[in-house]
């Protein structure tokens, strides 16, 4: 019994001696954690201060620009969100202005005679003049087989100018040109009709009595024009008598029209 009490006494005594020894070990551990945390926070604060200083001095901006130049495909999101809508708006506005400007052009046509035309002197009846649409000017109007074809209906002014001339090169024909009928006609075709019957819009000309033996060169020009309401697909063309005497110069024989109003 006494032995047991003694052992209990010794155990309690040993525990009391060890207890103060553990306390200092636990306290040192907490102090180490606190010091480590303070050290990390200090490093973070130093890094933040350095970054702010570099940004204020412009160093970071230069680095960003250099990075953007090295990576041209990299998007600048903040600038793209602003620039893209403005760019799209300006492009749309530009296209709209171009469309409106284009639409303001009124339909018109001006065609010179085709220089390669070769009429036979045996053709005494009226012939349709072929025009040079390649060197001519067509806006919102079509051309086919000597005819100007209307695309946009409206009220048009139609004009034609033809020149007839007799020069030395015609002497080989040995033709009597002392009493010639030189006429110009402008015709209107309504293509929507089941049977197309051309209608004469204007007629002008005269009977010429050229004095061939005494004059080496003779010329006679006819010019006429008038307003007419044309529908879509309507055609206009020019016929002349004695077409073999036509002057093939572009400034002497030409044909055209332009829209005046709806």
List the helices and strands and how they pair.
Elements: H1 2-57, H2 59-70, H3 77-103, E1 108-112, E2 127-128, E3 137-139, E4 141-144, E5 147-150, E6 154-166, E7 180-189, E8 199-208, E9 218-230, E10 235-240, E11 254-261
Antiparallel strand pairs: 1-3, 1-11, 2-10, 4-5, 5-10, 6-9, 6-11, 7-8, 7-10
Q: Which overall shape is indicated by the principal axes computed on the Cα atoms? A: rod-shaped
Indicate the low-confidence ranges by residue numbers: none
Elements, N to C (H/E): HHHEEEEEEEEEEE
What is the residue-averaged pLDDT? Answer: 77
Biggest beta sheet summary? 6 strands, antiparallel
Count the DSSP helices.
Answer: 3
The fraction of residues in strands falls at: 25-35%
Helix percent reads 25-40%
Written account of the structure:
- By secondary structure, this protein is an alpha+beta fold.
- The protein has 3 helices and 11 strands; from the N terminus they run αααβββββββββββ.
- It starts with a helix and ends with a strand.
- The model has no long low-confidence stretch (mean pLDDT 77).
